[in-house]
Amino acid sequence: MKETQREFNEYGIVFKYSSEYRSVLSDHPGDYATQIDGTIYDALQEEGNPVKIGDFILFTINPFEFGDLNVAPYFDILDAHSEILSGYFPVLFDGVHNFEFTDRVENIAFTGGARRFAIIEVLHIQPEYRGRNLGLLMMSRLIQHFASDAALVVIKPHPLQYSLRDEDDPRPSPYGNMSREDATQKLADYWSKMNFRPVPEHWPFMVLSPNTKQQPLEDWLHE
């Protein structure tokens, strides 16, 4: 069923999420990365029942989670947590024991020496809610809620509907006859509306400083 077009202030966005956070000193570097899995709901449906809008998976990484005397190197944190996170290390850092973001990252998203950063690995919007820039609204809300004090927010645009699509699915592809590369470029162009910028030599990774001034959300929803 096609979702009825509504105004910006008619969406009651609710995040329901779960995470495992260790609040005491840990010897395992992977514990310095916190994974948050969640579902996005619209709580302002006429029937009064929250309706699912989408899903998200994000990570917050803080090498100083347990104080300055118990610092875990970024490489150890990302490598110990998962193969997914380990792939972000060469994008952001040079050298296994380096605690500074690379110049290529600093040049497009000045961190001011901050250390904590966030990775938004998945942001999926239900098909009936697409086509009105709600993804930008959801991304903005995620950053505001989970990463407002982070040095960086990092994403790797990858069209889930393209990569996970069943070849026998009779529904038309949301990317038409686009190649994977063109579909990824289209998604990257979409996130660039929020001032996410591509990391040189590491396409399609993109970064954003949460302090970057954004246009009013209402403008996005009415483009």
List keywords for this structure.
seven-stranded mixed β-sheet; 223 residues; globular; alpha+beta; 21% strand; disordered N terminus; 8 helices
Task: Annotate the secondary structure layout.
Blueprint: E1 13-19, E2 33-42, E3 51-61, H1 74-81, H2 83-86, H3 89-92, H4 103-106, E4 117-125, H5 134-146, E5 152-155, H6 160-163, H7 180-191, E6 197-198, E7 206-208, H8 217-221
Parallel strand pairs: 4-5
Antiparallel strand pairs: 1-2, 2-3, 3-4, 5-7, 6-7
Please sum up the structure shown.
The chain has 8 helices and 7 strands, in the order βββααααβαβααββα. By secondary structure, it is α+β, with helices and mostly antiparallel strands.
- Secondary-structure-based class equals alpha+beta
The succession of helices and strands, N to C, reads EEEHHHHEHEHHEEH
User: End-to-end span in angstroms?
Assistant: 23 Å
Approximate strand percentage: 15-25%
* Mean pLDDT rating: 80
Please provide the count of β strands.
7
